[in-house]
Amino acid sequence: MDLFAGLKSFFRTDTTTIDNNVFRLHYRVTSVILIAFSILVTGRQYIGDPIDCISKDDIPSNLLDTFCWIHTTFSLPDAWYKKVGEEVPYPGVDKYTPGEKRVYHAYYQWVCFVLFLQAILFYVPRYFWKAMEGGRIKNLILGLNSPILPEETKTSNRKLLVEYMTSNMNNHSMFFLWFVMAEIMNFVNVVGQIFLMDAFLGGEFSTYGSKVLQFTNWDWSVRYDPMIKVFPRLTKCTFHKYGSSGDVQKHDAMCILPINIINEKIYVFLWFWFVILAILSGLAVVYRGFIVFFPRSRFIVTRSRARLSNQDYLESIINKCKLGDWLLLDLLSKNLDPLNFRDVVNDFARKLDGKSLDNI
């Protein structure tokens, strides 16, 4: 709990809602998950040293560990499918012959940094939208999110809000455009990060989750764990040094990578999470397309959030609004107390009909 105590600030509830649930899955849930994973892979007290190498030669273990961590370890693809215990000691570990193909594993040095970079990228659309929104919704609430408010204050604040909405009618087009851009950024970001992790893991990430699912259905006697190929727990390392006669000597070492026990679980989870998030983000973009091209859908959406409001008044307002005005009204419906929002809708509809609010 001490390890993740610093993340608790991410779970504070915002007093003002300026986005939707899918949006929050990006900057709040996914960013926290990635930062937590980044912290986890650096916690040596939980997984031990990230690498431990052994050699039959008289080489200091600390020196060998540092060398193999810096210069990377490797596996032999031809030994991945050999029988463990008879032909090889571990999948991918075998005697190396010159010219044989090697697969080098250098990614584990950068996992914590890449995860942290990904967390930042997931927060970028949120930062962009907050900068463009500029605290507008928070300033327009005027205390009307509270169900208990003096009647005089409630009436004056409601009047101020209606006056703002009336005088700025059809002036919120960029407000809507910025929000749509932020939603598209969310979708592009999550899809792009799938390709980023695929490149980071040598082209293995795109099919990683599906192979893990297939692996669980294989017969135990013949199945091969695909996670071992991507995140081997035992690899090889070649160390060169000068001998007593001045000749270069080659020493083979086997290295245990305890950190990959954590890494494989992290990336299995991220594969499924990113696929689900990409689908939800794609649906959010499609939903926004319906909002743009089917005006009736705007009324249906807002009506579902404002059931106490006069439906005729609400429909009349939305029919006169452009997309930016509708988004502003929809966000207000999420933040205002339902009774106060009902009164705002009534006043706004009457104001648009040319009636004075002083006579209501």
From TrEMBL:
Record InterPro entries: Innexin
Keywords carried by this UniProt record: Cell junction, Cell membrane, Gap junction, Ion channel, Ion transport, Membrane, Transmembrane, Transmembrane helix, Transport
PROSITE patterns: PANNEXIN
GO biological process terms held by the UniProt record: monoatomic ion transmembrane transport; phototransduction
Pfam families named among the record's database cross-references: Innexin
Residue intervals passing through the bilayer: 29-47, 107-129, 175-196, 270-294
Localization terms from the record: Cell junction, Gap junction; Cell membrane
Main location: other
GO molecular function, one term: gap junction channel activity
Gene Ontology CC terms: gap junction; plasma membrane
Membrane topology: Multi-pass membrane protein
Function: Structural component of the gap junctions.
Family the UniProt entry places it in: Belongs to the pannexin family.
Name of the protein in question: Innexin
Organism: Araneus ventricosus (Orbweaver spider)
Source taxonomy: Eukaryota, Metazoa, Ecdysozoa, Arthropoda, Chelicerata
